[in-house]
Specification:
604 residues; SH3 type barrels; alpha+beta; 18 helices; six-stranded antiparallel beta sheet; binds adenosine-5'-triphosphate
Length: 604
Amino acid sequence: SGLSLVLTLVLQELSLFCKKDVNGVGVLFDLLRSPWLQALLKVYECLHQAVRKKTDPVTPQARALSREVVELLRGVPQSTEIKELRRLLRNPHFKALLSAHDTVAQKDFEPTLPPLPDNIPENEEAMRIVCLVKNKQPLGATIKRHEVTGDIVVARVIHGGLADRSGLLYAGDKLVEVNGVPVEGLEPEQVIHILSLTQGTIMFKLIPVSDRPVSSQTTLYVRAMADYWPLQDPAIPCADAGLPFKKGEILQIVDQNDVLWWQARQVSDLSACAGLIPSNHLLKRKQREFWWSQPFLPHACLKSTIYFDVTAEDDMQIDEKCVETEELKEEEEEFSGSGQRVFIAGFRRSMRLCRRKSRSSQQSCYARCPNSCYSTVAAPYEEVVRYQRHPTDRNRLIVLYLGPSGVGVNELRRRLIGMNPHLFQSAVPHTTRAQKSYEENGCEYHYVSKETFENLVYSHRMLEHGEYKGHLYGTSIDAVRTVLGEGKICIVDLEPQGIQMARTHELKPYIMFIKPPSVSCMRQSRKNARIITDYYVNMKFKEEDLQEMEDSAKKIEAQFGQFFDQVIINDNLQEACLQLLSAVHQAQDEPQWVPATWICSDTQ
Ligand SMILES: Nc1ncnc2c1ncn2[C@@H]1O[C@H](COP(=O)(O)OP(=O)(O)OP(=O)(O)O)[C@@H](O)[C@H]1O
């Protein structure tokens, strides 16, 4: 402990000189602070305490080192500590310490190998013997029969697996023996059987691959646009080595050497060993095969909602508090009491019913046409990068995915905007219907001619559009730009078609799905809720509505889940609203995975 104390004091003293840059002090300071010296000091002190006897004489190397240090100290002002240090360096204990270092440093710890036999034939291929100690983990390598030679070779080594970590097995290595059993003439399955019976050490005798591929892999991150279950895939080389994934999950691809099978990890578990996933090309092929093997399912995704099926009989059962919409021929201003006319944009009844109409017709169409541009067949993986919005960049567009009708998208959007109307705003939609006397152009709607509206659609400047009672309604990209250009956060609700249009470098949408809770929860929370319909307002939710909502949500999630950045369950309205608010801020201020094409500006 005496030595340690002195050294600490010396270091403190030297640190002062260090700052003044006195000749050579830096070198000395680093030397005395070096971990090896500290470690040796500890060893020395332990030995000193234990043995308490005279140490061995110093070796020439130690002496040389100590002389060097003494030399370095010459130019340093002679403070008490420096004097102490010089004394220390002359001390036999310290010399013994250096001597111990020299002895350890000179010792050869390499194993002594037996000499090679003299009678090795000239053309003998170099063999490698590899011993691996198997724990509960799989070996992390697959084998196959070589297409040309018929030899059993290592097909691939899984990244991060036991074989990979050993650094002793490589793809292409030819197996000669496994645990002393020659593999010549055996089927790969028989070799695997031998391996599966092995506990503890496995010994491979192999001929190393001559031209080991130089790894030029760059790590790639992708968003899975489809689900994959290796245990259900008969074509996977080794089902246990497969990596299951679901739509929307982010994967880190670590190996693309094989045309058919890549290696990847879940980004949520990067310490795990990689697993096999089908390559882009293979997964696309599988999806097509899977699709064609399915029977034709009309209306497989969503039925149109019951609100369009109101019959005379239904009318009889409707709550008497319902108001017939005959009285509502004119659109009601839903938020007239708020005093904020900007609130009205995008919430008008006709706009909502128009959306609902186009939604019910489109979703059944997507279910029937999976090869449409919205289907996952187009790109099973989407390359993504981590993106954090710079504070001076425009805000990201917030999209609430139009989920099941009545789930509460409008309610949540309205509440969010109400929390801070100066920050959150809807985009003002366009319509071809006539402007009413109490309306203002650009406030509730942009009132345009049919021709202008159609031009906007044909020039792909409409995020979404539809028709209701003979009039066109829609939200334009320019309307969104206007809100974002004012430095505000634009909140819109869109369907799949609109989402595809909005997914651009410029808008960088953050997409949230508002999901209903279970039917039993909704029975409680929706007791006083009212829905607007084509015919009635203030209509209570019926049991079938709740069931329909739950079923629709499941189908939407299964079909479009890959596009969702966040899923919010709207059970307790207050809580859902707070979650929405926090997600909106996260989207703007925290790093998120976004398509790589949004960031590489040259692709724009
Ligand atoms: N978590 C909730 N708890 C109780 N009531 C709710 C909740 N969320 C929404 N509601 C109520 O449910 C009704 C329907 O909500 P809303 O109009 O927002 O649905 P929507 O998803 O916008 O429907 P649509 O897309 O068909 O217009 C409203 O009366 C709303 O106040």
